């Protein structure tokens, strides 16, 4: 399956955070109304994880992220969304100004078709992008704890984890921690859908970057009564593993 085809084939799974976000906003309104009225909070509002991100998409190149995002936006459920920071996205994830894409401008049959599909556009493999869904917009370049969807390369995700973890270690004087501990970071603790696309390309990069242990998260200012029962005490629980969707895609799948 080509990268563009896989974007379209699995777009229905990306609609899940849209529906979930609408449900969370509706339940938050119900909770606020109950507090204002001084009545007991409703019991059917356990719709959130320890942290906000619920979808993680791992891709090999910035050009892959462009195709994914464009496909997601084109097939977002109604109503129409305003896309914020799209100009910045095209600038940072497209080719630098003045650079010519030799694959896009080449004569037909100059390169194998799969070679062109894989490598046209920006081939940089160090990137991460947070997407926040609101009622009327999709906001790009949000910090991870405020994002619903994270699109990243394994290298970009690993560097982001280590950067923030090392900052925490320096602040807390915990310099004796083993390096593996740096690879634990809880913004991934409530991922419900993991998509790994173009695995054939990812395996030719450093596959070690995908080996990140996910710890049970802290509440991060969330009301404990809204935490889903599928995130009880540990992300290694049978319940949370049974409800998580893993999609591993490569050409031919």
Task: Report what the structure shows.
With about 250 residues, this protein is an alpha/beta fold. The chain has one domain (about 5-95, about 110-250). Helices cover about 35% and strands about 10% of the residues. It contains eight helices and seven strands; from the N terminus they run ααβαβααβββαβααβ. It has helices at about 5-10, 10-35, 60-75, 85-95, 115-120, 155-170, 200, 240; strands at about 55-60, 80-85, 130-135, 135-140, 150, 195, 245-250. It has a seven-stranded mixed sheet. A hairpin with a 3-residue loop joins strand 3 (about 130-135) and strand 4. The longest helix has 27 residues, at about 10-35. The radius of gyration is 20 Å and the shape is elongated. The model is unreliable at about 175-185 and about 230-235 (pLDDT under 50).
Summarize the structure.
The protein is α/β, with parallel strands linked by helices.
Keywords:
elongated; 7-stranded mixed sheet; alpha/beta; 253 residues; single chain; 36% helix; 8 helices
Topology readout:
Blueprint: H1 3-9, H2 11-37, E1 55-58, H3 62-74, E2 82-84, H4 86-93, H5 113-119, E3 128-133, E4 137-140, E5 149-152, H6 154-172, E6 193-196, H7 199-202, H8 238-242, E7 245-248
Parallel strand pairs: 1-5, 1-6, 2-4, 6-7
Antiparallel strand pairs: 3-4, 3-5
Helix pairs in contact: 1-3
Helix content: 25-40%
Low-confidence stretches: 173-184, 232-237
Strand order, biggest sheet? 2-4-3-5-1-6-7
What is the radius of gyration?
20 Å
Q: Which sheet architecture does the biggest sheet show?
A: 7 strands, mixed
Portion in strands: 5-15%
What is the distance, rounded to the nearest whole angstrom, between the alpha carbons of the first and last residues? 6 Å
Shape: elongated
Extended strand count: 7
The number of domains: 1
Mean pLDDT: 75
Structural class, by secondary structure, is alpha/beta
The helix-strand sequence is HHEHEHHEEEHEHHE
Determine the number of helices (DSSP H or I, runs of at least 4 residues): 8
